[in-house]
Amino acid sequence: MLGFRKPQQLAVAAVVLAVTVQAPVLAAAGVADKAPHAAATSAGVDTAMNKALDALPASDGRYTVAVRDLDGRHAAAYGEGAGAFDTASIVKVDILAALLLDAQDRGASLTAPQKKLAAEMIRKSDNAATNALWKTIGGTDGLNAANKRLGLKATHTDKDGHWGLTRTTAADQMVLLEAVLGDAHTPLTAPSRDYMRALMSTVEANQRWGISAADDGKRPGAAPALKNGWLPRSETKLWDVNSIGRVEHGGRTLLVAVLSDGQPSYKAGVALVERAATTAVKAFVDAENR
Known about the structure:
Blueprint lengths: L38 H16 L7 E8 L5 E4 L6 E2 L4 H15 L6 H12 L3 H10 L2 H12 L16 E2 L1 H12 L8 H11 L24 E8 L6 E11 L2 E12 L2 H23 L2
Antiparallel strand pairs: 1-2, 1-7, 3-4, 5-6, 6-7
Helix pairs in contact: 1-8, 2-4, 2-5, 3-4
């Protein structure tokens, strides 16, 4: 299963071959900047972040990173040329967004049972709760419809309906994070976004790894909002390890996504994701402050 607290209890939802390559030293594919007047500066930030990540020691597997300053002025991406990655349990954020969109369309609130399932899905990464809500939103058709409204263009559901094998890119996760944790125009209402942020800011203690490592803890009351995902592939015995969310660093509020696959173990994947997140965020903010 995807995203339980004890990796040894995980089971694979489907057999899909994971390709292992060296950690990417790839040309950056910049995330589109919403503010044209800041494009040149964003290019400089992107270059600085890519240089810092390129300088890291080579690691197993591959990874991709995207970072955006929440005010929309600057954005940077690394390794987007690597293509799509399995979502594992980060798709649970997407599933909750779809659930909330449906409730909004009906002019309704989530029911008490749905709220209980949503809390278990995000805070505990519970798969049974996710399975129930996956059915509620209409499975692949429901998620695809929601993603079209949210603006995700490179996220594709698994043909056999396994939610954890949805494929995505770091750029698409930025679109999702802006819709969920940002202040930009989004189909999600402010109460829906506040609800999602509250859940993502209160995940269980043993799941507060990943992009949260990049949070400097200097803004009182602003806990990192995140969702992680991890999945061992049965055929290769290698791991997908991902982390997405919102952090504070150097007085900036940043959206961050790190996706990886081909990791030799859960522990190695977590270490890679945290190393990439902290390196990327520091370089990003340092470049912004120059």
